[in-house]
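Researcher: We are triaging several targets before committing to wet-lab work. For this one, the compound of interest is flavin-adenine dinucleotide. I'm pasting the protein sequence and the ligand SMILES. What I need is the predicted three-dimensional arrangement of the protein with the ligand bound, expressed as structure tokens, so it can go straight into our comparison scripts without reformatting.
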Amino acid sequence: MTTYSAPLRDISFVLHELLDIGQFSHIAPFKAATPTVVEAILKAAARLCEQVLLPINRSGDEEGCRLENGVVRTPSGFREAYQTFAEGGWTSLACDPAFGGQGLPEVVNLAVAEMACSSNLAFYTYPALSHAAYNLIGTHGSDEVKRAFLPRLVDGRWSATMCLTEPHCGTDLGLIRTKAQPESEVGYKLSGTKIFVTGGDHDLTENIVHLVLARLPQAPPGTTGLSLFLVPKYLVNSNGSLGPRNGVSCGSIEKKMGINASATCVMNFDGATGYLIGKKGRGLHCMLSMMDIARLTVGLQGLGLAETAYQRARAYARERLQGRAITGAQCPDRQADPIIVHADVRRMLLTMKAYNEGARALAYWVALHVDLSRQHPDPEARQEAEDLVQLMTPVVKSFFTDYGFEATNLGLQIFGGHGYIREHGMEQLVRDARVGQLYEGTNGIQALDLVRRKIVKKSGRLLRRFFDPIDRFINEQKNYSRMREFTLPLAQAFAKLQQVTAWVVEQGAKDPQQAAAAASDYLRLFALVALGSTWAKIAKVSYAALDNAGEKRFYEGKIITARFYMRRLLPQTSSLVRAIRSGSRPIMELDAEAF
Ligand SMILES: Cc1cc2nc3c(=O)[nH]c(=O)nc-3n(C[C@H](O)[C@H](O)[C@H](O)COP(=O)(O)OP(=O)(O)OC[C@H]3O[C@@H](n4cnc5c(N)ncnc54)[C@H](O)[C@@H]3O)c2cc1C
């Protein structure tokens, strides 16, 4: 039962009814993104995901990638699927027309990304990294480098990687040893080994562009000594044609828990020619601009897999007959009732549904601010949007991948033992979901980024961009009686978040261990409140649409799910607050030897 049907109605609800992207039609990428155009794009993307990517998801997992004579071969069907993907213009959707892109909003691109992650996450890792690299080169590359590399990344003929991790260094990038030696004629020569490089080598594209963090001679130790280099697999001639093979090769591919069709490579750089991107010593800064969009996409991976898990579990719960409803048979003409009658199964389904639909709305809202941060004509509005994106990126990356793993496990649980065996594809979803919590910076590190940097940055300015609109919304809605069941719990949870934020900032200033010990719980609390405000807005929009639309059931479903979120999921905030306020002592007092 490897099914998936793109949730187009829900995506359209978020884009047009909740976010009303039409209100930005005066801003460049939204001019062309009329509702008709967006609907046509999403429908075409849904067809591609359901008919091309989904059918090779399971076989890709089983076959995996293999290294043959120094070249990585992707599983059967991946090359053809990638060709269809690139020729269909899916790599160029949100790229600059100056480099052959379609100039559409990033928020539309991310909606497509969600569907692609739902249908075949391993496949999508390849174009996702290319898009992140496109953003990095577009922001920090010289005009010459942009001219040489962007058009081919945009049309999908070339792909890209990010090369940070080394055997002795993952989180602590200051330990990077890969060296870059200046060479007057060619730029730089890079030597060293990178591990865990996604798409480090494969047979999908003509060329692969590696973005590599390395150290120049005499560079200071730590991250300030890192510079960023572009190292192509094949050198590029001045007329754009491919030149000789560069000194970079795949040493081996990792055998791993999930996303088996995504090649995770050990990459050896043996005097490989590289070109400096950005300023010397600013490598990490440049790389971070690639990782921000990559981190949002990783968050979408959690959502994408959770959506597939939900759809399959929902179908199974309607069909599987076991036991009788506790209040009496619901289907007396059948041997037993479908398991969807049981409260515990409904609890699991609703948890998935509430997280998925809330997360979709929250993620697209952040993606919309990516567009506004780049294209809004008013510099203040651009800055405001940029602040929000910076603040929300670790939250989306971390919470969405945590719940993605939680939700795929719930989906598996609904299948009972049939979820644990391979037949239904549920165990693959769980395995594929797990990596999101690890790569692009582990979730623990994202939480530290939130508490140690983002909430205190610019004297709390980033935080106010998020807090102020929630405050306004609660005040605006407080007199609407039917909204009270949503705004009251939201207001309570929001107040707790504000108080705990002040506590974390104050305690963290005195003793950083307090902030570090609070970090993961704080991020979850933050995310739950963000989803709470999202669900309250969904309830508001749904109430307004309820009477005049022919889709009463759709909007009622939203209101009931919002109620479930407020009553059954948002209350987790209380225990998180208590855990955070217990401080660092319960965590730190046990001697390392006593573990
Ligand atoms: C499938 C896959 C694909 C990947 N793709 C890429 C890629 O394309 N490019 C690339 O460069 N890398 C890639 N990675 C590497 C990935 O980004 C790293 O695995 C990740 O950053 C963590 O590094 P590490 O594995 O060395 O763990 P470590 O850094 O050793 O961390 C181990 C544990 O300690 C915790 N920890 C470490 N330091 C701290 C701290 N200061 N405070 C609190 N906790 C801490 C971590 O959160 C983690 O739980 C990939 C990894 C995988 C598994």
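Researcher: Any quick observations?
Model: Residues 161-165, 170-171, 196-198, 256, 264, 435, 438-439, 441-442, 444-445, 448 surround flavin-adenine dinucleotide (CB under 6 Å).
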